[in-house]
Amino acid sequence: ERIIFLRDYAPPHYSIEKVDLEALFKQDSVRIRVLLTVVPAPDTPPGTPLILDGNELVLRSIAIDGLPLALTAYEATPDRLVIHEPPNRRFALETEVFLDPEKNTRLMGLYRSNGVWCTQCEPEGFRRITYYLDRPDVLARFTVTMRADQALAPVLLANGNLIESGEESDGMHYAIWEDPHPKPAYLFAMVAGDLGRITDSFTTSSGRKVDLAIYCSHGKEDQCRYAMDALKRSMAWDERRFGREYDLDIFNIVAVSDFNFGAMENKGLNIFNDKLVFARPETATDADYDNVERVIAHEYFHNWTGNRITCRDWFQLCLKEGLTVYRDQEFTSDERSRAVKRIQDVRTLRSAQFPEDGGPLAHPARPDQYREINNFYTATVYEKGAEIVRMLATLLGEDRFRKGMDLYFERHDGDATTIEAFLKSFEDANDVDLADFGRWYTQAGTPAVSVSENYDESSGTYQLTISQKTDPTPGQPDKVPMVMPIRFGLVGPNGGDMAWQSVAGGRVEGDLIVLEGDSATLSFTGLGAKPVASLFRGFSAPVRLTSARPEADLLFLARHDADPFNRWQALQDVAMGLMLADLAGRPWVDQQITPLAAALADTAQSDTLDDAFKALALTLPALNEVARSKGQDVDPAAIEATRERLITDIVSRIGPDLEALYHAKASTAPFSPDATQAGQRALRNAALALLVKGGAPVGPGLASAQYHAAQNMTDRLAALSAAVSRWTADAPGLLGDFRTMFTGDPLVFDKWLTLNALPTHDETLDRIKAILSDPDFPRNNPNRLRALVGAFAMNNLVQFARPDGLGFRFVCDFVSDVDQRNPQVAARVLTGFRIWRNLEPSRRAAAEAALRDLAEKGGLSRNTADILTRTLQ
Ligand code: B3K
Ligand code: ZN
């Protein structure tokens, strides 16, 4: 099995200056003719073979400079095309292949979704369209000519600007698209089909008028309005915040129903999973609206961080992804509530990235080897990658960070570059040394940080000892300390931050401690009272704090910390502490639960906090988070029981407050997805969720009434989820009702599928199997499969990790079946097993047996085999 190493990187022997691609779309096949202008690199020895990538291709004809090639001059297999002795000068290579997009169930390359031809090329899909140097450091100018029956495909789209179009004989028509910006093949895109659209325009700050359009299946146009609004706000924000303008006359987005990922930033022609475009109040929740806005922004921001400046090789994926996630997080923070956004992002990081970083699939944000690059579009590359950029911004401060970004854009526009070059821009712009900081990109694992303190009353000295340690990860047994920005405050008895006279023992810059070694002991003088330290404000570094703190200190911070993130965190910590102690055989007592319940009630009633924040405060740590904190010998059923009991005990104390809050937050205003209204809904629904999960007698009735009266999907789904979470008496009936209410809307069907996958009781598995075995179930649509089985494997640990092993068996059977058609979906679902070694012994054994059987069966794709091998290692 071939492993690709970063250290083996070598620049290509040939570059491709220009690509002239001609696509002829016929009902049953697509003909692709390509003319490549190839240039040997200056130091390429004459006679060096030209090796082009392919995947499942059949070569129909080949010529160089117009002359057909002799059979002995080349070798063509489905996977590559070798020209043995190409001319030692610029030459034109012409090839022709025929594709069968209908049969392309992998959804990479050119495929068909709802009759529409579309493409997905990142990372290695272009080689499924034509033989090519399919690597991101080969940048070429593309001209694309598309031809199709006007009735079959009235819409013909590709990257760049439309330079010509017209009708031909026999009802055919054509369009010629030219992209003036050289680009790697992974940013290539084409769409042909019968689509509806909405249009708008945006004028950039230098006066360029850009025509905007969003294409979708007919009848869904109205559902694209919010996405269009988000696009225009994204364009304006990137100018304001980063000085980045759009660079073409056209920006098109196409929504398709079959898509392996969320969306794709193809130059001037973004292609989206339609669930991240469509939004209307009756079928989309506030969370869906947020996701549409976030991903529209993310793909748009790639135009500069990804497209204008791209990656030299796929090891650098985080260069564009981590940075672009950071940018979309900042966009949302500026548009909405910064504190709320931060809390949401940290919850995502903890539930998706921490388990990855602490398990068998752990890898650095910049990996140094891979077998299958598709398996590295991970939470580590994306979310931890964004945390690294955020730490850089924290360490440098806003102005110096912007100076570094400006230099990066100026220096590398048009380049395919590296993480090193990115960091160098910040070093050179600010005259700083980031060598040690750079280890965040190369070392895997979540640092565990412990803290101890000592206050000497007589001298007014407060000592804080902070230590870090990172556990070994696969391939990295020995770890070095990280450079860690710790934003902090010393909170005094009156709740305000205290000033200190002097500090010694480490690097402290204003409200920032920079931990550089294994450990530091900081002595603060001039403190008239013992402070309560508020550390990692705003979650200033992606670490796990492992030392338990006195509940009294945490509850104090929950009420007084000037940093909203740490106010939220303190409540989470108290709840987590109680659950972990309970799981260790030390159940909580009255004196612990009463103050926590009171703090939650007071937070919910505060006049100064906004509703969205309060909603998050009322949301206790998820089961997956508790499992991660527990670390070893995880019994998910026991965690679920503890969690439910904690909520029950809280609700038994503050149920009436929650009920009052629930009624106070009712609203009759017409739906708007704005942050204020969404926050109000979130708070009301958080109260409802607690009441139902906590067994309040009023809970089921409120949920049922809300479900039936709901005027929007946010409220309807929240009510239904609450009922399902405790499996109330009417949960099955409500679920059935929901199934029929929106038949024909696949995105609502997905919500129903997920609700069926999440109940923690034992009938869940049979229910899922029954749904899957329905002959009408869309077995090839990634959204449907992920909504049902992905949700089960990732978010229903209780049933996935059933003690009888049937959950594991089911997921393995599913993976082995889907792998035949769509390896990416199969491999992704299989990553649910990454927690297996942390389970208690009997579940661990059951998981291992299921995995070993899957391995034994063989015949797996490279994607799935890679995940399986690493999971078992
Ligand atoms: N760059 C694409 C990812 C495509 C992944 C293909 N396996 C989406 C994004 O991150 O914006
Ligand atoms: Zn991205």
Plain-language structure description:
- The protein has 873 residues and is α+β, with helices and mostly antiparallel strands.
- It folds into five domains: 4-194, tricorn interacting facor f3 domain (Immunoglobulin-like, Sandwich), CATH 2.60.40.1730; 310-442, Neutral Protease, domain 2; 448-541, Immunoglobulin-like (Sandwich); 571-728, Peptidase M1, alanyl aminopeptidase, C-terminal domain (Zincin-like fold, Alpha Horseshoe), CATH 1.25.50; 742-873, Zincin-like fold.
- It is 41% helix and 21% strand.
- The chain has 26 helices and 34 strands.
- The strands form nine sheets. It has an eight-stranded mixed sheet with strand order 6-5-9-3-2-12-15-14, with no helix packed on it. Strands 17-18-19-21-20 form a five-stranded mixed sheet, covered by helices on one side.
- Helix 23 (806-818) packs parallel to helix 25.
- The model has no long low-confidence stretch (mean pLDDT 98).
- Bound molecules: (3S)-3,7-diaminoheptanoic acid (B3K) and zinc ion.
- Residues 298, 302, 321, 324 line the site of zinc ion (ZN).
Keywords, separated by commas or semicolons:
alpha+beta; 5-stranded mixed sheet; Immunoglobulin-like; 8-stranded mixed sheet; single chain; binds zinc ion; 34 strands; zinc ion binding; binds (3S)-3,7-diaminoheptanoic acid; metalloprotease; Neutral Protease, domain 2; 873 residues
